[in-house]
Amino acid sequence: MSSLLAWFGDHLNYWTITLLMTLESTVVPVPSELVVAPAAYKAADDGELNFFLIILFATLGANIGASINYVVARYLGRPVIYAFANSRLGHLCLLNEKKIQKTEDYFNEHGAVGTLIGRLVPGIRHLISLPAGLARMRYSRFLLYTTIGAGVWNIILAVIGYRLQSYIPEDELLDKVEEYSHELGIAMIVLFLGLIAYLIYTGRSKK
Description:
Elements: H1 2-10, H2 14-24, H3 36-46, H4 51-76, H5 78-85, H6 88-92, H7 97-110, H8 114-117, H9 129-134, H10 139-164, H11 173-206
Helix pairs in contact: 2-4, 3-4, 3-10, 4-5, 4-10, 10-11
């Protein structure tokens, strides 16, 4: 897997970005930090890629992968999902029953909006579409929240990768991206929760 990711890293274009982000949003362990940030770094370095198109195709790939998870979970159901997580192939994808249960608990606690916020949470980001499918969440709503959440996350990674091109060599990029993306992810979650709380408060005040 590492050699395959290295090959894709050397051949980053809009199609490989879409493919890798599709895999990232299923159950295949492809960190988005290894895709979007290096692509944006490359855009700042040689201008071969366009910053905004990187975000667009990365979000498209995320939507495709999340939709695959959603459909599989919705039509195959909980027993199949948990059986896969406990299988040898599931373990190769770094899955287990505990991770799936954690993601389900997160979705049940936050409701449908958890699909949006969950896209910013490490360890849950690529699996949050599974409980959405299990809960038979309306697909149009699921796709809207996934697009917003994935889009925000991809913007964060792209901005980090683009800005870091001026300050650090390429071999230090991934360490810095991991550091900054974790902190910004937490900040975005707090911002979203604050916005939701404000909307709930103002809605109740009007009533």
